Amino acid sequence: RKYESVIFHNSEDVEVDVLITPYAYNPKNDDISEEKKEIFIKADTDSIKVKANSSYEIKYEIYPISNLEEGTYFNILTLTPLTKNQNVSINTSIAQLIILDIVTPQNQVKGVTTDSYSVDLKIVNRGIPFLTPLKLKYSIRNNSNYVITPTGRLDVFNGKNKYKSIYVYLNQEKTDVYPKEVLEKEVEINQWHISDIFLKRIIKGEVFNGIDGVPKQVEVEVNNYILELASTIVILILSVFFVKSLVKDSKKGKDR
Predict the structure, then answer these.
(1) pTM for the whole thing?
(2) 52-68 tens-digit pLDDT
(3) How far is the C-alpha of 35 from the C-alpha of 161, rounded, in Å?
């Protein structure tokens, strides 16, 4: 159990009645609910009177609900001034957001931590050296009950480190991934080095969940382009012989 407080300031020239209401909150879709089993905060009172041009400190208690699974939970405490006709308008409310992370007794010392998320890295398109980019897609699946904000970096280099690694930073927008959701994004790598034609490229990465400092490793390899280069050379050679053959046949026809 923990006690916190929020300050309500009445800037009006008259005394104001304020209704205090706790709600369960879903930040994903901004839904609020009065479902008792999802509410883990409790204020000292349901309403207060705040004198004109003065402030009032409202204390509330955060208490764990029994049988809650490990995860991230959200409540809001709304402070709603009553209008003259005593109608409540949630749109004029002031809301205090409270976030509760539940951990097992075994993890109380370590704090919030989870490895219940998976990372996948795939090659969408190998690209053509110096013509089209290498395209990759990474996906991060949140299998936990926590809200995670994954971050990380991919290092792109070739088999013999012929050039400085190219860095690609993941989820720079800091997008939250809610339980059971998947974050998927494609990235393009436009930089090429002549050695990429002959050597395989390696993409290694570390992805963090935004909760603890333990990363997950990912790695993929992009084959070299020797086969494509050889095929192109063979086609060019055959094309030259074919053109020469056509020219030769054409000259023979004219001689007749």
Answers:
(1) 0.78
(2) 999 999 999 998 777 78
(3) 58
